[in-house]
Amino acid sequence: MSTLKRTSGIHVGIIMDGNGRWAEARGQRRVDGHREGARAVRRVVQAAPGLGITTLTLYAFSADNWLRPASEVATLMSLFRHHLRTESAGLVEQGVRLTVIGRRDRLHPALVHSIQRAETVTRAGGVLRLRLAVDYSARDAIVQAARRAAIGPSMAYMDRTVFAGLLGEAVNEGEAVRDLDLLVRTGGEQRLSDFLLWEAAYAELLFVQVMWPDFGPVELARAVAEYRNRERRFGRVIDQAG
Ligand code: IPE
Ligand code: IPE
Ligand code: MG
Ligand 1 pocket: which of 15, 19, 58 to mutate (most atoms <8 Å of CB)? Predict the structure, then answer.
């Protein structure tokens, strides 16, 4: 374990990819894959605190996913709403605080209402911070932060820390979410697809073949174990003995 490794909890981000292919491989519809994917989310959220994860950011719907067929988008949106409503009580019980990052102005008002409600009722959760990225684009988030910086009074003091405080929900909460420690993408593709570009500056990257609906506590534990075996150097030279 490297000396630079923090002992405190880690921030894991997951690009939950492969729902469609999982379903197609079974002769099912893509939306069936999304339904099964929602179950995988529940399993992973339950397992995360036991693995030392204190912040978990899940990529659920990208700003570019609006380009998918309307029926698939509609199913995804209704799945989000359904699960926000049915899972909130369980999240409270588990001490999970949920926030949703991304744009809200293109979401159906009923979904926005469900998001606000889930965020409010889970607010006191101190075990796991769960961030769900919906209508999210990292580049848009950076542009948005740049706009805030331009109209704010603190341009002369602008640095990484100040800028990070202008990203996403940090604006409302007054403190930035810590940088990503581990970024996992399921489904075999090896790209970021506009997810957390700023926060992933020094994240360890892990691309796994397993499709998201098949991802569970075992796969998450394996990913965290892989992360703990990596040596994070942050630009420095680690072995300075002798
Ligand atoms: C990820 O699975 C879920 C979303 C992007 C909403 P996909 O739907 O992208 O599944 P594949 O990549 O087509 O298999
Ligand atoms: C990224 O997956 C977005 C989510 C998992 C929510 P995509 O399936 O949309 O990404 P691309 O199109 O393969 O890059
Ligand atoms: Mg995909």
Answer: 19
